[in-house]
Amino acid sequence: MAPVKTYRDLEVWQVGMTLVEKIYAATQSFPPDERFGLTAELRRAAVSIPSNVAEGSCRRTTPAFVNHVSIALGSHAEIETCIEVALRLRYVSVRVRDDLMVTADSTGRLLNGLLRSLETRLPQKRPRLEPL
Length: 132
Description:
Blueprint: H1 11-27, H2 38-58, H3 62-88, H4 94-119
Helix pairs in contact: 1-2, 1-4, 2-3, 3-4
């Protein structure tokens, strides 16, 4: 495995960018009246994932990176929900939904792995002492 020099070297950023491309392609066929609704919401949430990974990694502190990865995980859950909404409204087929979910699932697993890895770098909190 090559050493990580920038956020662009992170697999989670790369897979997140692929998810952005797939979301944009899938939402092109949404009805025009969804331009400021579900289309915008899905696209914003998708872009948020690699953007937060990039921003967090450039903050140069582990707590800041953890925070940004946590935000990216929230966007991941939002994407999964919006994809299901799109299916129920028949804006996407089951095949398109399944394809999007494969990439979304991969992104989610990578985000969770990155979060766990970062959390091991945080100082352990000491348990509070109970008052006497």
